[in-house]
Amino acid sequence: MDEDKLYMYSAILTFILGISAFVFFQLAMGYKNYFYLLGTILSIALIFFIFHVKAKIIYKLNYERFKKHWGQYEKRKINVKNIQRFFEFHKEENQDEFNIDDQTWVDLNMNKVFEIADRTLTSPGEEMLYKIFKTPEFSEEKLIERNSTIRIFQENKEVREEVGLELTRLGRKKENGVIDIIWKDIEVNYKYKYLFNFLFWATLASVLTIPIFKFKYIIILAMFILVNTVAHNKFKNKVELYVQSLGYLNGVINTANRISKIDCFELKYFTDVLNKTSSKLMKVAKKTAGIERVEGADVIGDAIYNMLPIEERKFFNAINDIKKLRGELKVLYKTLGEIDALMSIASFREGLEYYCEPEFKGYGRTLNAENIYHPLVKNAVSNSIKLDEKGIILTGTNMSGKSTFLRTIGLNSLLAQTIYTCAAKTYTTSFFKIMTSISPEDNISSGKSYYFREAEALKRIINQCGDKEPVLCIIDEIFRGTNPVERVNASAEILNYIGKHNTLTLVATHDLELTEMLREDYLCFYFSEDIDDTGLSFDYKLKDGICKTRNAVKLLNYLEYPNEIIQKTNERLAKISQT
């Protein structure tokens, strides 16, 4: 049975049982008969049983899908805004650490890269994978350790599926408040603790006395339910995300505990950490047990939690222990997330056309790549390049592949320093701070022009120059947002400056004057194309030298612009070339 049919059948049965519960309750109220009330309770119990069975089936389907589609990309909706909160907490705790900034992230289309690479099974996993991509490493030892774990999941199917079984059981939480519970100081009014304890036992007592007093005092039960509902919703508005995430926190701890029992020498570092932390956190697991909502039962769950303050009591019972054991919770959460993230990278590798593990040089400004390609480009054309201390000026006609090549270099440099994986045959590189200025945009809301955004993007690169680690600086069409005279001269001075301050720079430009002005400090490469009566032909191959041709007018001709425009444009260009 597929998930669509499962949801359909469970929805039909739930609807029927919901009607039955309503009818039985009406009969119980009308005839004051205890047996009709039992019918109501039985109908509700069957609804929860259906959701329980459905959850078990979905878990089994997800596990089978994990095994069947290993190494394959499966499209799913990703809430990056929710996922990146974990990285923000990490960033606050590690303020001296270099991170990929927002401009570079956008320039390299990293949201799409993350989507393709994300084969994680849990919320800690997808959050850790995002954090890994945002924080390139500058230690080869750390990357080699990371790579050894990735290889285990690639090569050891038994261990991979054993870990995958436990991670699938945990699954993802649509809106994960666990990281807020662990990393934030939660301010709550503890007077609610005593109120909810009283309401819980008073309401329960009112229900249990119905068989004794029949329906004589049902007004008391109704009153407690009303008070419960008001108190529940008032409290819920303040700490709803935390309260509803306690069940998932319970799952995280228990999953970590089960994975810690897996016998695999290569995973011993992870299993030892999980064993040590989960054993200390079992008291939190016990106090948060039994409140995880079954997916698809939100309406019924809300009704139950409105009548009985189950979640709130669990919350108050657990919150003090959570605060005391915050350090252990952080370690456990990050370790479990790292296991899931590294297994996701192993799957990502399997889906690549080919890849290599990078070789790092701990000095200089080197970047040598053989048959490097962009993993997001279908039927991508590979190129090779060798750079040692000198950057490049890249020229070429429109649509010939300059921007894609720049993104290819930037992305693979980031992949090398994060997941120890490059879409290339061989890749040798220094460690770099990776910064780009490829697609700064006009910001209408702030009133910033295109040129202003370009200037801002370049200034952040300049600010990073001169540090211990060299900067890999990638710029597409430097200062395209201003006039040619100022553009060329300002560009030349900026490229001269950053070239002298520990930077390996790759810049694409249409300004051929720059190649003459900077020929001693930069190598020149270009892309080209052919245009004939049959259309445009691009080979996307990197070539030594400077592109002497232009294709803007040819493109207009190819698109069948009026002959008058083409002719007069060519006449203007001829006059300019003569002056």
Keywords:
10% strand, four-stranded mixed sheet, ATP-binding, single chain, six-stranded mixed sheet, MutS, DNA mismatch repair protein, Chain A, domain 3, alpha/beta, 60% helix, DNA_mismatch_repair_MutS_sf, 579 residues, 24 helices, Rossmann fold, P-loop_NTPase
Explain the overall architecture.
With 579 residues, this protein is of the alpha/beta class. It folds into 3 domains: 1-68; 81-351, Orthogonal Bundle (MutS, DNA mismatch repair protein, Chain A, domain 3), CATH 1.10.1420; 359-548, P-loop containing nucleotide triphosphate hydrolases (Rossmann fold). It is built from 24 helices and 12 strands. It has helices at residues 3-31, 34-68, 80-83, 85-93, 102-107, 110-117, 123-134, 140-155, 157-170, 178-183, 191-208, 210-213, 218-259, 268-280, 282-287, 298-307, 310-324, 326-350, 402-419, 450-464, 484-499, 513-517, 552-558, 563-578, and strands at residues 359-361, 366-372, 383-388, 391-396, 426-430, 433-437, 471-476, 503-508, 522-527, 529-532, 535-538, 543-544. The strands form 3 sheets. A 6-stranded mixed beta sheet has the order 6-7-8-4-9-12, sandwiched between helices. Strands 1-5-2-3 form a 4-stranded mixed beta sheet, covered by helices on one side. A hairpin with a 2-residue loop joins strand 10 and strand 11. It starts with a helix and ends with a helix. One of its GO terms (cellular component) is cytosol. InterPro entries: DNA_mismatch_repair_MutS_C (IPR000432), DNA_mismatch_repair_MutS_sf (IPR036187), MutS (IPR045076), P-loop_NTPase (IPR027417). Keywords: ATP-binding, DNA-binding, Nucleotide-binding. It comes from Clostridium felsineum. One of its GO terms (molecular function) is ATP binding.
